[in-house]
Design goal:
Blueprint lengths: L1 H38 L1 E5 L14 E5 L2 H4 L7 E5 L3 H10 L3 H11 L9 E8 L4 E5 L2 E4 L2 E2 L14 E5 L4 E5 L9 H4 L2 E2 L3 E10 L5 E2 L1
Antiparallel strand pairs: 1-2, 2-11, 3-4, 3-11, 4-9, 5-6, 5-8, 6-7, 9-10, 11-12
Helix pairs in contact: 1-4
């Protein structure tokens, strides 16, 4: 009887010990996931059709946050960046420093809630120091017509005046030229607002591919 009593006590201590470890493991896993998504890579979903046909509405993509620590943005890269619209800026200012915003960022980082739509996804077209222009339905960089193999045949880009891209800025545009709010609307974006480079489409699974 003594031997059986010791076993029951031992099992009780084991369950108690395990119960104490579970919250620690869960919190550790959540913190690790948050750090990875904050510093290394993060998943985003495509909320609009501005990057059709390559990226469809509700596609899920992975954005590398390390790429531009290794090299500068390149023409043709698909980048995610902070929304430059005034409404987005005002919303961020209203939420800045708030506990609610912090908790939401943590929840987004560990995948508990859907990421916000405060970020845009577009393609890099012109780099710092270059002059970009929309003319005769095409893009010109420093006076030379830009070849854009990622666009469907027959795509026409609306005309816009020549503009020299400032230092540490990028000119970005959606592939769906007829339905994209991009640098033609809000101008060049600061390099500092770029979240990272889109490297992989992971959903839907049949369309998974490197970008």
């Amino acid at each position: 009887m003594t031997h059986l009593a010791l076993n029951r006590d031992g099992r009780g201590r084991s369950w108690t010990h395990t119960a104490r470890e579970v919250p620690i493991l869960v919190i550790s896993a959540a913190v690790l996931a948050f750090l990875l998504k904050t510093l290394v890579a993060q998943a985003f979903y495509i909320p609009s059709g501005s990057m059709l046909p390559q990226l469809q509405i509700n596609d899920r993509v992975v954005v590398s946050k390390l790429s531009y620590r290794l090299h500068d943005p390149r023409r043709g890269d698909i980048v995610v960046f902070d929304c430059p619209a005034v409404s987005c800026v005002n919303q961020k200012r209203a939420d800045a420093g708030g506990v609610r915003r912090l908790l939401r960022k943590v929840a987004e980082g560990v995948g508990v809630v859907q990421p916000s739509t405060e970020e845009f996804i577009k393609r890099v077209i012109a780099l710092p120091g270059e002059t970009v222009e929309g003319r005769d339905g095409a893009i010109y960089i420093d006076g030379r017509r830009l070849t854009e193999p990622y666009l469907p045949p027959g795509t026409i880009t609306s005309d816009f005046a020549a503009l020299k891209i400032p230092t540490e800025h990028l000119w970005v545009m959606g592939d769906n030229r007829g339905n994209s709010s991009d640098s033609r609307v809000f101008g060049p974006i600061p390099r500092s607002t770029v979240v990272g480079r889109t490297v992989l489409r992971v959903w839907p699974i049949p369309n998974a591919s490197f970008l």
